[in-house]
Amino acid sequence: MKKIYSPAYRQHYFEGYSIGLNPFLEFNYAKRNEAFIAGFDSGRSDYERMNGCISDGIPKCIVTNKILEDFLLSGLLGLSIDTDGYTSYQMDLIAKWYQSGVEKYEPNHSIALFELLEKNGIQIN
């Protein structure tokens, strides 16, 4: 059995993952090996979980884990969100993350955070 946690396997896996996660990049058949294919499949699965099937088209705005975390944070802080450019599939996922933040919203914590940010010259609109 191969060591699937070897540095070479890990490198090929992450190369495949990054290509699978980006719908604008094509599968590189020259690098095809077990690790690359496993990474590509995992990346493509993550992309489609957040953005819908590629066969349905590539949306104007691409949702990533970072964007979902930003929506969660917006909900936690009670901020309004801008959802222009997202598809209905993406909006369903975004709404779940935002709602999760809203459910944990603590006005007192937000006020204290805003005061701290303002004190340091950072304004949130």
Report on the structure:
The chain has 125 residues and is mainly α. It folds into two domains: 7-55, no CATH class; 65-119, no CATH class. Helix content is 60%, strand content 0%. The protein is built from five helices and no strands. The chain has helices spanning 7-21, 34-51, 65-77, 88-103, 107-119. The model has no long low-confidence stretch (mean pLDDT 87).
Poorly predicted parts: none
Helix content: 55-70%
Number of beta strands: 0
How big a fraction of the residues is strand?
under 5%
| First-last Cα distance | 55 Å
Largest sheet: none
Alpha carbon gyration radius: 19 Å
Number of helices: 5
Layout of strands and helices, then pairs:
Layout: H1 7-21, H2 34-51, H3 65-77, H4 88-103, H5 107-119
Give a quick summary of the entry.
With 125 residues, this protein is mainly alpha-helical.
Q: Which keywords apply here?
A:
60% helix; 5 helices; 125 residues; single chain
